[in-house]
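Q: Given only this backbone (323 positions), what sequence would you predict?
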């Protein structure tokens, strides 16, 4: 079983440990020497691997997504940890625990599903409540909600992350609906619960989170609208205008065309959903960076390329105030 995780690797250590093989590709040095570059990982992070001796032989030992046993030693290259791999083989059945390789929600997922059902029961509009009930009754959706991440790397990137994110967005929207009188509360909450359902089809969770073919070729927004269209076809006399508004919530929730939103929000419910989604995604991402990078004496995060900034981690005095 696994005893050493990526977050605990130290330069100079010899290791024999299990990782999930995320990527593998041949490279060449400027002098033309061929080597194998690997990306290895577990639930705590990722680390590069490099193979100089017998790269072809090691390349054929395992495929991306499989758990492997690696023998080597930890070095540093351009300021980043790297494992110089001497040997690698595919792990045998039962030799490693899959739970060591995918981060997972700390919350009870069955309780979160119950919360989803409880919110559904509060929807007064019979058509909107029916579509949520059809979603919950679909055997391909509810189990997927308990497995899918909210994102591949940036936010809620763990088993159950999609479900946590969905409920938090619904909670933010509930509060907004109480503040602004023009909002159609039932429509907004239905959109919040359904806005990211396409991610169930867009992500795979085999050893690590990655895009499915559908996720790459179509994307979760289109997949989500297709799912809603399918359920709409099962409900007689669903008001056409209401159907359009619901689909608009899903299609526009990324907010801007440059962020892969096919259209921008054009209803009051859509703009609220966009900012609720954005708030929860950003806060979770910031919180993850703070939790994983904060160590004694470190006040700022490493440079975060996705948002082009450092994140303030706080100081020890502030930590004492929080305790």
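A: Predicted residues:
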């Amino acid at each position: 079983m696994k005893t050493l995780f990526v977050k605990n690797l130290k330069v100079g250590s010899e290791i024999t440990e299990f990782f999930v093989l995320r990527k593998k590709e041949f490279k060449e040095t400027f002098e033309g020497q061929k080597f194998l570059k690997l990306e290895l990982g577990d639930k705590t992070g990722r680390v590069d691997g490099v193979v100089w001796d017998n790269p072809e032989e090691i390349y054929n030992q395992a495929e991306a997504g499989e758990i492997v046993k690696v023998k080597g030693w930890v070095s540093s290259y351009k300021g980043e940890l790297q494992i110089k791999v001497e040997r690698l083989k595919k792990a045998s059945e039962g030799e490693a625990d899959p739970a060591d390789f995918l981060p997972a929600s700390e919350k009870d997922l069955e309780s979160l599903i119950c919360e989803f059902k409880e919110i559904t029961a509060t929807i007064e509009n019979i058509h909107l409540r029916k579509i949520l009930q059809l979603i919950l009754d679909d055997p391909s959706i509810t189990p997927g909600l308990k497995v899918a991440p909210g994102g591949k790397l940036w936010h809620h990137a763990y088993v159950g992350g999609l479900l946590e994110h969905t409920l938090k967005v619904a909670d933010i929207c509930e509060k907004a609906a109480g503040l602004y009188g023009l909002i159609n509360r039932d429509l907004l909450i239905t959109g919040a619960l359904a806005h990211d359902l396409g991610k169930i089809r867009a992500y795979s969770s085999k050893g690590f989170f990655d895009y499915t073919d559908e996720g790459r070729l179509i994307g979760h927004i289109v997949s989500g609208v297709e799912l809603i269209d399918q359920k709409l076809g099962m409900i007689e006399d669903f008001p056409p205008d209401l159907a359009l508004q619901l689909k608009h919530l899903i299609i526009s929730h990324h907010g801007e065309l440059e962020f892969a939103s096919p259209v921008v929000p054009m209803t009051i419910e859509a703009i609220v959903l966009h900012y609720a989604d954005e708030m929860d995604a950003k806060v979770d991402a910031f919180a993850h960076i703070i939790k994983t990078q904060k160590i004694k004496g470190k006040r700022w995060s490493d440079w975060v390329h996705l948002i082009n900034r450092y994140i303030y981690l706080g100081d020890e005095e502030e930590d004492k105030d929080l305790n």
